Amino acid sequence: MSPKIYKLFTLLIILSFTQSSKKIKNQLKDYSVFVDVLTKKEGTLDLHISIDSVETYLDKLEKELNNEQSQIDLFKLYSNITSRIQCGHTQLQPTKNVIKEWIQQKNSLPIDYVLYGQKLFTKKIESDDRNTVNFSKTKYQTQATVPDNCEIVAIDGKSVNTLITKMGEYISSDEDGLEFKYFQTSQLFEFYRKIAYQENQDSTKITYIHKKDTINKYLFNGFPPLKSINKRLSDYEKQFLDNLNDIGKFSMYKSKYAYLKFVSFKKCKGKEYNKFLKDSFTKIKKNKAKFLIIDLRGNTGGVMQTTLMSYLVGVDVKIGKYQVTKPKLKRENKHIKKRKRDYTIHKLLSFSQRLLLKQNSDFDYSLKTPTIDEELQFKGKIIVITDEGSFSASSFLACNLKVLAKAKIVGHTAGGSYYKGNAGTLTCVLPKSKLTFIVNPNTFYTTLEAKQDSQSIKKPDLIIDPIYPDSKKKDEWYLNKAVKIFKEKF
To answer: pTM score, two decimals?
Structure first.
């Protein structure tokens, strides 16, 4: 979920108490734009499902749009279609009107909580929110709450996995895997829960663990705690944006294990990054390290890591393909946002690919590892740490390390595909509903041949559940668990 969505909440604290949003008219105009952009700019539309299935889903959507829909119902209809395409990059983003309509329903839990890994934890409510969420409630009703920092194991008798499976009908992921859907809903779980389960009810049963006891309690529904959510999302957005500028961190753990952590691959290219890699592998050689841990938790991708792979598998090794399947057209759909960095990158990639094809008509879009100082190539044992947020270029790297470097995987199953996907991130705003639609003109492939069970290869050799969310020793926890596998699995 894009961090830009989180900025909506600042405005919605005020807007949510104003007049209700109206149904959207002339919805078929949106449909026309949606289909046009999807067919012209989605890299390989039938990458994971047949084109006949896509057309069937689109026909069904068109029929639904003959009737006027509310903001939330429109969001559900379009989100369901993008989810069925089974590409995690291709998704619908909720608008302020969609979130506003959710808030105005006054049918949400009065507590704040987040998904960490695959577990729900309650968060502290800001004092300004207490009067809002308890508006018009009796004294008895206001006393019904859940303590901070408790694990919620069920909502209305439904486990987290059951909830995610239903919510996942409106959330995109590669090959329809559940893992990335966990990650996508982590900060807006209550919003997506009410999108999936829209029945009106005056209270909700919460099952939670407090001081090792399992407790059932009914909470009275109403407004969600907006200021608490807004503060949490603002902090999350700041961290997310900081991560985008991080080109990696290197350290030696217990003087024996080399440790590389990448929270994003967005800026992982160019002279500065290449110097970081060279310096890191120089230190690995100097320390005579025979064990390397590469941490990809929460890394949603960015630049494909060909140079890093050179240090791990050698030079001139094919690690996959990357193709601009739907290059820039002379006259792009006017609803695609042109003044965005991703569109500029799309133009440059389209131009570069045309030039490569002109110079070499046999070019097959292969990605190969570039030249490095081969004396620095690491030839020891590798462990990769993944979780639900390891996606795109991150899961692509994990796959190649597992297959080409015989690395072991620990943590949780990666959210991204180990086989293939569409990428590129072009933004389209539907003209009537103003829903934001993300479409992806590029297609990437690893060296693996696709299998029917596309999720099994991602299963870690060792499952490591994350510890309590506010722990300051997360990295050390993972490292202590990960190093044991060097003795047990190699």
So the answer is: 0.92
